[in-house]
Amino acid sequence: VKPCSLETSTNNLCLGELIENMFQRWQNGVPGLSTLGPLDPFRVSKLRIAQRVPPNLDVQVALRNLTTYGLSQAKILNSTSLSKNGYYTTGFHVHLKKISLNCNYKLRGHVLVLNLNSAGKMVAEIENLEFFLIFKMKPVKSEEVGLTFMNVTAIKTDVSRVDNVRINLTNLFGGNKELENSANELFNENWRVLYDVLRPVLTQTFDTVLEDRFYKIFNYVPARYFFQGFD
């Protein structure tokens, strides 16, 4: 890993390479850091979403054991850095060619013309996903070891682009496969409506997982291995 400058820049290429390398080399975790889960696949135990976009969508969704694949293939399209008042803010424009999600779901409400009250398995594939990722960090000197570590104080993601969504939900109508297949076809023909449900899922998932992973990484590996100018 090559240490990067955190001086204010609108095109910090080094930071982009750093994040790509971390996603790829540490997709299964960081050697010696047993508390860190994998980056690819990454898992979230449960999420709850209530989404209302009249007239096509009014649902409450509970997801459990959500597993997402594909983050290790992330490409950084642009990266920025800002130094101000002892804090460092870095921004990344991230592109993922494809990610896959699977989980258990419970859904109640209406989607398009369908009234639903069901529970089963969900599998989804998302093509050409782009999102913005922002880190806010503050260097902290450890008196115990005499080294500086980067404390992640906030991480925020914002999904900006999706080219296609394919989704399959099981057990939509109590096991009636003909109705289930027709409903999934309807969802996929109108995938933009499903995107209104999945967008907060993706945002919450990325926020939760990335904050946990990078907080632990930066508190375990001294700042000098990532960034220039630190002891």
UniProtKB/TrEMBL annotation:
InterPro entries, sorted: Haemolymph_juvenile_hormone-bd, To_sf
Family: Belongs to the TO family.
Source organism of the structure: Drosophila rubida
GO CC annotation, single: extracellular space
Keyword Magnesium belongs to the record: no
PANTHER family per UniProt: IP09473P-RELATED, PROTEIN TAKEOUT-LIKE PROTEIN
Entry keyword set: Biological rhythms, Signal
Origin: domain of life: Eukaryota
Signal peptide: none
UniProt record, GO biological process: circadian rhythm
Entry keyword annotation includes Lyase: no
The name this protein goes by in its record: Circadian clock-controlled protein
